[in-house]
Specification:
With 293 residues, the protein is α/β, with parallel strands linked by helices. The chain contains 12 helices and 13 strands. The two termini are 24 Å apart. The structure holds pseudouridine-5'-monophosphate and manganese (II) ion (MN).
């Protein structure tokens, strides 16, 4: 693993750091907005008093903190592979360049001692009977990190995903809400048992895990989007998007990028704007939590 200068210095000095994933850049957002967002999000983290650590694999090596040309490569090189945790060793051995999902980013961040991670929406259990469940879920059950997200992506089976998080013993805390957020939607329609109102409360919970021996898993902070998508439009896009995915026989790790692209295109950029707002808000909150820790 290699570190950017600023991440290495921050780790040594135990200053607050926020991990950022790269699949959102390579496979979640369209060019050229993706690179602009990557740069803006890093700036938001810095402006809020933490060091950004965008994580990716470049020619077989893992970088924690990317240089500008590496960020550019992840955003613009179409050969960059979406990598989950299980792919890391394979891609390292074959010297590939790859963008890390929530699962892979959390895995690397936790290993190097970073405690906070910001993303858009978590992966989860997909709709339908194909047994498609994101590796994000299992990964969070064995990765000690605070992950700030806007719930799980609304293209998923939300209730099944919440049940799986319970089974996997991953705590889910609503940030200033008692409702589980629905990514593009402020409210997914499901209740949350626990609500927190400040980074300090989150940090107290984080440190209590040690006393009760539950340090193995992640803690999910669910931060709802302010300006949500019209729910009727959301339902229409989802139905149509699922039909299109079925017709084109999209499967496996292509499903999520396909549906996100479908939403962004057919909503004429409205969901893209919301997705970007989500990432920015989560990065800001993550920086505040990192400082509280
Ligand atoms: N959140 C977003 N956009 C994304 C993702 C999350 O706002 O593109 C990515 C994350 O990298 C997440 C992945 O880990 O989608 C989930 O993919 P899958 O469903 O194939 O596990
Ligand atoms: Mn999958």
């Amino acid at each position: 693993m290699k570190y950017s200068n600023e991440v290495e210095a921050a780790l040594k000095a135990k200053r607050p750091i926020v991990a950022l994933e790269s699949t959102i850049l390579s496979h979640g957002l369209p060019r050229p907005r993706n690179l602009e967002v990557a740069i803006e999000v890093e700036k938001i983290v810095r402006d809020n008093g933490a060091t950004p650590a965008t994580i990716a694999m470049i020619h077989g090596e893992i970088y924690v903190g990317l240089k500008p040309d590496q960020l550019d490569q992840i955003a613009n090189d179409t050969s960059v592979i979406k990598t989950s945790t299980r792919d890391l060793a394979i891609l390292a051995a074959t010297k590939k360049s790859a963008a890390t999902t929530v699962a892979a980013t959390a895995h690397i961040a936790a290993k190097v001692g970073i405690s906070v991670f910001a993303t858009g929406g978590l992966g989860g259990v997909h709709i339908g009977d194909g047994f498609d469940e994101s590796a994000d879920l299992h990964s969070l059950s064995m990765t000690p990190i605070i992950i700030v997200c806007a719930g799980v992506k609304s293209i998923l089976n939300v209730s099944a995903t919440l049940e799986r998080l319970e089974t996997l013993s991953v705590p889910v805390l609503g940030y200033k809400t008692n409702r589980f957020p629905g990514f593009f939607l402020t409210d997914s329609g499901y209740n949350l048992e626990y609500r927190v109102g400040s980074p300090k409360e989150i940090s107290d919970i984080w440190y209590q895990r040690k006393n009760v021996h539950t340090i193995a898993s992640a803690v999910v902070i669910a931060n709802p989007v302010m300006n949500q998508l019209d729910p009727a439009l959301h339902d229409k896009l989802l139905t149509k998007g699922m039909q299109a995915a079925g017709k084109q026989k999209i499967s496996g790790k292509e499903v999520t990028p396909f549906l996100l692209e479908y939403f962004h295109r057919v909503s004429e950029g409205r969901t893209l704007d919301i997705n970007i707002e989500i990432i920015k808000a989560n990065s800001k909150l993550a920086a505040e939590i990192a400082k509280a820790l």
